[in-house]
Amino acid sequence: MNSYPSYRFSVAPMLDWTTRHCRVFHRILTKNALLYTEMITTGAILYGKYDHLYYNKIEHPIALQLGGSSPKDLALCAKKAEEYGYDEINLNVGCPSDRVQNGAFGACLMKEPDLVAECIAEMKLATKVPVTVKTRLGIDELDSYEFLTDFISKVHQIGGCNHFIIHARKAWLSGLSPKENREVPPLDYERVYRLKRDFPDLTIIINGGLSDLNIAHDQLNYVDGVMLGREAYQNPSLLLHVDSLFFGESPVNPSNLHALSVEKIRSLYPYIENELSQGNKLGHITRHMVGLFQGAKGAKLWRRYLSENAHKENSGIEVLVEALKYIQLD
């Protein structure tokens, strides 16, 4: 077992992407990276029809990301998360979507550091599980370094939060879509590095715009960990290198990469068969796998076959068996 903390490398919470099926798939590619749920609102957990906290035990280490602004509700959800065995509970203070703003949580909470501090304090009272915050550099015109440090200081000193994930962009609460907010505001990694220098006792994780694993690893010279989002999802084979690069394990032979990926998919067959037997759809599982074979001969045919067949009624393992035949390993 390695001695590195799992937050050295994590896969970001991504709405409609980091579902439990996605996380099981990612876990077979990296055993050490910290995986995050999609953001789940307190209302969904406390009043929803479904069990939004369910996950497969192989997903550990796993963090729950919560969306909400009621200290009481967040505390109740934190307690539930502890009962379910989550390894970390994260409060979303970074999502800029209209739907999230209308619920008075997400990035707009940066304007209310005292409330965020109260939320964190109540969550920490309710659970022994680590409670963290994912946030931005600022919002709208409130984007000075002083604004950021005031926010961090209050949430740390009053709320007791010692662990922050910083998306190295500010957010515009109006005028930009969530997608544009991930791309248009400029990245400012230096501001995150400065934050770590000014708050050396805090755990600071950097997020935003990172796509190359070696460049991501270089961030560890300045901060405590890195979080990748879209690149980890769209090109999941990079996760096969995470355990060696970030956690000191034996490296993967690059010439064996696609054969290893085929092996990993086949190892998921029992999980998929079990999910299908419970009435779940193959396409809901395989949609997270389509980007796996980037650069392999036959990758385009793999993607096409899955896209055209996995969503058909009664599709089963045979779809994956056939799709894998398109991947040329020699």
Search tags:
single chain; 330 residues; alpha/beta; 8-stranded parallel beta barrel
What does this structure look like?
The chain is α/β, with parallel strands linked by helices and 330 residues long. It is 42% helix and 13% strand. It has 16 helices and eight strands. Strands 1-2-3-4-5-6-7-8 form an eight-stranded parallel barrel, surrounded by four helices. Helix 3 links the parallel strand 3 and strand 4. The chain is globular and about 55 Å long. 41% of the residues are buried. The mean pLDDT is 94.
Order of helices and strands: EHEHEHEHHEHEHHEHEHHHHHHH
As residue ranges, the low-confidence spans are none
The global form is: globular
Mean pLDDT: 94
Instruction: Briefly note the structural class of the backbone.
Output: alpha/beta
What proportion of the residues is helical, as a percent range?
Answer: 40-55%
Q: How many strand segments?
A: 8
Strand content: 5-15%
Rg for CA atoms? 20 Å
DSSP summary: helix tally: 16
- Give, in spatial order, the strands making up the sheet with the most strands: 1-2-3-4-5-6-7-8
Report how far the terminal alpha carbons are from each other: 34 Å
What's the main sheet like?
A: 8 strands, parallel, barrel
Summarize the topology.
Elements lengths: L8 E3 L8 H10 L4 E8 H6 L14 E6 L3 H14 L3 E6 L4 H5 L10 H14 L4 E6 L8 H13 L5 E5 L10 H4 L7 H10 L4 E5 L5 H6 L6 E4 L1 H5 L7 H6 L9 H11 L1 H9 L4 H5 L12 H11 L7 H8 L6
Parallel strand pairs: 1-2, 1-8, 2-3, 3-4, 4-5, 5-6, 6-7, 7-8
Helix pairs in contact: 3-5, 5-6, 15-16
